[in-house]
């Protein structure tokens, strides 16, 4: 005969804590995190969100920095898109710069990174040496030196003349001036090179050994092993460099003398924005240009992310 026993109820356990009490305890546990985050939150609101809101408001006004803003609605945007040929010239110059400079810069950075990966002694020295232009190239002083190199009678013109290529000074030639800015940007390949080098070091040597056993040569190993395994790093560098290229300003300002010349051949978007806002005192128009640039960068970035699904390979994803 079995005896059925039941556990007596626990008289000491109280009723479950009310929901409001649990939420209050959760807030008490989280407040130290908000205290430590408060400097960043204050900076984000005061230095980013509020200026963006003011800029958006000014883009719908006629504002000259001295008189109060006057609301004009969409007039700045319609004038920009339909009545300003220099605006579209700046768009074309910037697009040409992005299409040419970004692939050249990433290609050179990847090539040098692959050379450094196979380098034994002196890798740290060469890595630092190749990275140095990325620290110096964004300065106004280097841009002025670059202007002197590519000016009429400069070093580049004399070297090309010595080998029978007579182009003259690039800075004063509307056909070549933009390419002087492109070369200055490509020269600053150190940052993506370091990222590529880190990605190359994460590729397992076993993959190259297996490809070699299958009869793959160096070029085939590069296409079948290096490129797929490095594609997330390529995508990361591509997005960063594309965003930065749309915002190029200092080299264009220094090489063109601040006016986008000759014949508006170096009239980059940001340079024209600066001219309209601070030289012509049309700050409302400049604010509208800034928001159009933000929308364009957002659209290009979205396209890159959408298309990345077809060519970026992630090793931890099975259905790729």
TrEMBL record:
Q: Where exactly are the transmembrane stretches of this chain?
A: 34-60, 95-116, 128-149, 176-200, 221-240, 283-305
Q: According to its UniProt record, where is this protein located?
A: Cell membrane
Ranges where the ABC transmembrane type-1 domain occurs: 91-304
Keyword Flavoprotein recorded: no
Q: What is a single cellular component term in the Gene Ontology annotation?
A: plasma membrane
Q: Which InterPro entries match?
A: ABC_transporter_permease, MetI-like, MetI-like_sf
- Kindly indicate whether the keyword Membrane belongs to this entry: yes
Family of this protein: Belongs to the binding-protein-dependent transport system permease family.
> What's the name of the protein?
Sugar ABC transporter permease
- Its source organism is Streptomyces evansiae
């Amino acid at each position: 005969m079995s005896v059925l026993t039941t556990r007596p109820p626990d008289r000491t356990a109280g009723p479950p804590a009310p929901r409001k009490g649990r939420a209050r305890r959760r807030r008490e546990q989280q407040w130290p995190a908000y205290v430590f985050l408060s400097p960043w939150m204050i900076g984000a609101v005061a230095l980013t969100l509020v200026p963006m809101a003011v800029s958006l408001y000014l883009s719908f006004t006629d504002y000259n920095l001295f008189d109060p803003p006057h609301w004009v609605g969409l007039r700045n945007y319609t004038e920009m898109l339909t009545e300003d040929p220099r605006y579209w010239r700046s768009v074309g110059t910037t697009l040409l710069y992005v299409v040419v400079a970004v692939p050249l810069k990433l290609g050179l950075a990847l090539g040098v990174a692959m050379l450094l990966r196979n380098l034994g002694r002196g890798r740290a020295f060469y890595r630092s040496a190749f990275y140095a232009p990325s620290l110096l190239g964004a300065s106004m002083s280097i841009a002025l030196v670059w202007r002197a190199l590519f000016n009429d009678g400069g070093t580049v013109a004399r070297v090309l003349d010595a080998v029978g290529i007579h182009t003259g000074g690039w800075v004063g030639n509307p056909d070549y001036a933009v390419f002087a800015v492109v070369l200055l940007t490509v020269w600053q390949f150190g940052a993506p090179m370091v990222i590529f080098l880190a990605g190359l070091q994460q590729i397992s040597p076993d993959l190259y050994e297996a490809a070699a056993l299958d009869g793959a040569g160096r070029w085939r190993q590069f296409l079948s092993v290096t490129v797929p395994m490095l594609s997330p790093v390529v995508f990361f560098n591509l997005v960063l460099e594309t965003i930065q290229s749309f915002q190029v300003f200092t080299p264009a300002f220094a090489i063109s003398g601040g006016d986008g010349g000759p014949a508006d051949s170096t009239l980059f978007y940001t340079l024209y924005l600066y001219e309209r806002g601070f030289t012509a005192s049309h700050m409302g128009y400049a604010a509208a240009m800034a928001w159009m640039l933000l929308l364009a960068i957002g659209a290009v970035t979205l396209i890159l992310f959408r298309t990345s699904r077809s060519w970026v390979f992630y090793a931890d994803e099975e259905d790729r």
